[in-house]
Amino acid sequence: MKLTKRARLTIAMSLLLLVACDNAPGPVTPTVVTTSTLPTTLATLMPTTTSVAAKSPTSAPATSVPTQQLTPTIQPPTPGSSAESCVSETAQAEQDGLGDPLFPQLGNSGYDALHYTLDLLVGVESNLVFGTTTMRARSIKDMSAFNLDFESLEITTLTVNGTAARYSHERHELTITPATSLKAGEIFTVTVDYRGEPNSDPGDNSPNEKEYALGWSHYDGGIFVASEPSGAASFYPVNDHPCDKATYTFRITVPERYVVAANGTLKGITENGQTNTYLFETRDPMASYLAAINIAEFDRETQQGPGGLPIRNYFEKSLDSSTREEFERTPEMIEYFSQIYGPYPFDVYGAVVLDDNLGFALETQTLSLFGRRVGNDRVDAEQVIAHELSHQWFGDSVSLTSWRDIWLNEGFASMSEWLWIEHSQGEGAYESYVRGVYGYAQENFLSPPADPSADDLFNAGVYLRGGLTLYALRKEVGDDLFFRTLQTYTSRYRNGNARTEDFIEVAEEVSGKELGDLFNAWLHHAEMPPLP
Ligand code: ARG
Ligand code: ZN
Predict the structure, then answer these.
(1) DSSP structural state of residue 461
(2) Is 401:497 a contact under the CB 8 Å cutoff?
(3) What is the pLDDT of residues 135-155, one digit of tens each?
(4) N or C terminus of the chain with fewer C-beta within 10 Å?
């Protein structure tokens, strides 16, 4: 008999309630798993398991690291990542949107998210999530109500500063009216308990009604997350725009056969019996679309990066050694990009590689995501690996202010592929590769990179003409000033946000040249300038 999703959910909920009752609360000892509303076992979510003998996570867990170490440290607010300074001039920001020209509904005005804690219990095969997300934020103005972006998961409790708040939840907007109005400058905490199957209706999760699921995805091997640009709200309530970056704590509980790979550093694993709880923390603020939780049967392999930078790669167990070997040059790539772009911006890096034909890769912060075929017909694996790595500087550390400037991510990452070719194969290989790209761009009438539409954000013009723009800039100003421009840009906007105009300003400042015409021709004109 095939049950509907709702029926499965209802049955699971009832069983979980039974389990909870069977395990009347014992002595409560403070541990990492503090969310009292989380069910104590995943057994009922796992179709093959008959036993529901729950072992409370609060009863002396066998921790692999001392408990004290597992207490999340809250990061201080980072300047330059507040929604306040990042609202579009062209559109009016509303409470339920930041006025992004391409995605006016994304993000919310009125507050600055500082830190998210995602505490999720995940039934991997059933794809059921029981979650508690806490957002710590600072209000920018006096507010009687505010919004979060959140998809159609069922909310069970919602509090602001520990007190129940009124809320309404329609499609991707969650409107919250706290019992007491918030004053400008006030730090406040929103806690949302929720449950359900994320993205059970994939058509529902994009303001533009995309067909494919953005965000939380259930696949043969488990769960992965790929949210760019608007999928984060499929699994947690969030101010979903890169303008409002925040730090994160992930506390993810899964059946013990699975491994969790999330952004940042693994601080510990708590064994609860049939489940394990993985604790990850990010040191640096992160745009919401880069938040990633991957759950599968992974091998964790480490490499040593330059200056002792820790690198951890998660390969799905079924992947063969040839796929793993493609990542051998990551430390060398980090070394090279650090030299030309400035220091690697984060405290950890690595790849998570799924045994699945993803058809794309994504630069999730500190932990890029790849599918089984890392390369494709046009681009080899090394290029894709260099591409996602370079996004850690361009896109992740220096984030977009407006999605329309997506070429600041993808053009720079394409350029990085070509620079890696130059570094590893020589100048001739680089020049001839770029000439090939130019020919392709011409034959296919690729669009100017700086004005994509919302439903064509990742068009080839953005990637390739974007990269060619930087090739042309390099020719114009010479290597020394070109790389100094890139380094000034990455350091000035590190952990912050930039616009196309900001990059042009840095390029003009560093080179002392008027570059408006060059950028205008490459970025905005239908017809490409000749290749210099
Ligand atoms: N930023 C990604 C890259 O590096 C693109 C992601 C496109 N997303 C997708 N679902 N195809 O190329
Ligand atoms: Zn990219």
Answers:
(1) I
(2) yes
(3) 999 999 999 999 999 998 999
(4) N
